[in-house]
Amino acid sequence: MTPWSEFAIDPADRTPLHAQLERGIRSAIASGRLGVGDQLPTVRQLAVDLRVNANTVAKVYAHLERSGVLETRRGVGTFIAARTPSTQEDSLRRTELNRLVDRFLADLSHHGFRVEDALPEIERRRQQGA
Predict the structure, then answer these.
(1) Which range of residues forms the domain containing residue 53?
(2) How far apart are CA 4 and CA 83, in angstroms?
(3) pTM (2 decimals)?
(4) What is the DSSP string of 42-71?
(5) Which residues contact 55 (CB under 8 A, 6 or more apart)?
(6) pLDDT exceeds 70 at position 5
(7) In the listed set 60, 80, 100, which residue is the last one of a domain according to the structure?
């Protein structure tokens, strides 16, 4: 199974398709299912696989390329880019990570879970990506 076959595109979700696809690609990178240098399918192929408009995929690829997440090599394809964040970017990423963890912990508590309940599931998913 390819990493991109796991991208969750749900037409019934109120989240725009391009945002769902971007989230899926970023999630695959964060979990390790996609790594630096991995090639993504062509815009057309991914659009066919996910049953979305090719313009949607092109928009996501272009946005992720501008963000430094992807790189396109003319005539070769689109790949996960190697990035070394600057000190300022690293600080912003740490701040964002802390915000996400705070939100995650609040959501856990709201639904009656504790961190100890979530850790085995997080570890299982981490191992799947490795």
Answers:
(1) 3-80
(2) 21
(3) 0.69
(4) PHHHHHHHHT--HHHHHHHHHHHHHTTSEE
(5) none
(6) no
(7) 80
Residues whose CB falls within 8 Å of the CB of residue 83, separated by 6 or more in sequence, listed in order: 68, 69
Question: Please, which residues have CB within 8 angstroms of residue 122's CB and are 6 or more apart in sequence?
Answer: none
**97 shares a domain with 61:** no
Axis crossing angle, helix 17-31 with helix 115-129, rounded to the nearest 10: 80
Q: Which of 38, 46, 42, 55 is nearest to 4 (CA)?
A: 46
Q: Could you report the per-residue pLDDT of 10-27, keeping only the tens digit for each?
A: 888 899 999 999 988 988
Same domain? 62 vs 110: no
Q: Tell me, yes or no, whether 108 and 76 share the same domain.
A: no
Identity of the residue numbered 109: S
Number of domains in the chain: 2
Query: Which regions of the chain does DSSP assign to beta strands (E)?
Result: 39-40, 70-73, 77-80
User: Which DSSP letter does residue 85 get?
Assistant: -
pLDDT of residue 8: 72
Three-state secondary structure call for residue 107: helix
